[in-house]
Amino acid sequence: MIEIKKIAFKRGENQIFTSLSARIKPGEAVLLSGPNGVGKTTLLQLVGGVLRVQSGEILINGMKVDELSIKEQASIRAVAPQKRNFSLAFTVEEVINFLPKKLKAPNIDYIIDTLALRALMHRKVTELSGGEQERVSLALAFCQRAEYYLLDEPFSAQDSKSIKNIIKVIKTLQKADKGILVISHNQEALAQYFDREIKLS
């Protein structure tokens, strides 16, 4: 379980969280919503270990995130940022293969096919459209063997068919008892696909 316990976080003079608490259980898909600037991406980065809380604590399976090594974090959670920087001209296949063998999920072929990436495997990722790059970024997270998946705006550059396919993968992860936390501005249309919603304001 991911447990967020009365955390506080401040950027400069901007107090983003003062005493925020929340939980994400295994097998649960949770939608994180709220207007711009309320700290959705910041919360994802705190849970993902990119940032550190200034008070309170975040636990994953009873362990404090900020006390876990990078290797330990990678074995527990996978992160798909809103915009992954693909600056080098690797092929999609090479990008997917960046994952160490022991971190690769067993259903990589299913993920590649469901996200409609099979025909793009030998294309350079730098030559893909924004939506295609986003799906590659998602595939990189989904193909990681983890217990929790943190996704920042995974639907932002996708058409309706691709959105349904991403949700299909999320549902498959849920059935495998994985926990998923998803940021989306389009919460009204997507809330039906999630177990519950955390609203920041």
What can you see in these coordinates?
The structure is a single chain. With 201 residues, this protein is of the alpha/beta class. It has a single domain, classed as P-loop containing nucleotide triphosphate hydrolases (Rossmann fold). The protein contains seven helices and nine strands. It has a five-stranded parallel beta sheet with strand order 6-7-8-3-9, with helices on both faces. A four-stranded antiparallel beta sheet has the order 2-1-4-5, covered by helices on one side. Strand 7, helix 6 and strand 8 form a beta-alpha-beta unit. The radius of gyration is 16 Å and the shape is globular. The protein starts with a strand and ends with a strand. The mean pLDDT is 92.
Topology:
Elements: E1 2-11, E2 14-24, E3 29-33, H1 40-47, E4 55-60, E5 63-64, H2 70-76, E6 77-80, H3 92-96, H4 108-114, H5 130-142, E7 148-152, H6 160-175, E8 179-183, H7 187-190, E9 196-199
Parallel strand pairs: 3-8, 3-9, 6-7, 7-8
Antiparallel strand pairs: 1-2, 1-4, 4-5
Keywords, please?
about 200 residues, alpha/beta, Rossmann fold, 5-stranded parallel β-sheet, 7 helices, 9 strands, about 30% helix, globular
Brief account:
The protein is an alpha/beta fold and 201 residues long. 30% of the residues lie in helices and 26% in strands. The mean pLDDT is 92.
Q: How much of the residues is beta strand, in percent?
A: 25-35%
State the end-to-end distance: 24 Å
Averaged pLDDT: 92
Structural class category: alpha/beta
- Provide the domain count: 1
Contiguous runs where pLDDT drops below 50 for at least 5 residues: none
The major beta sheet can be summarized as: 5 strands, parallel
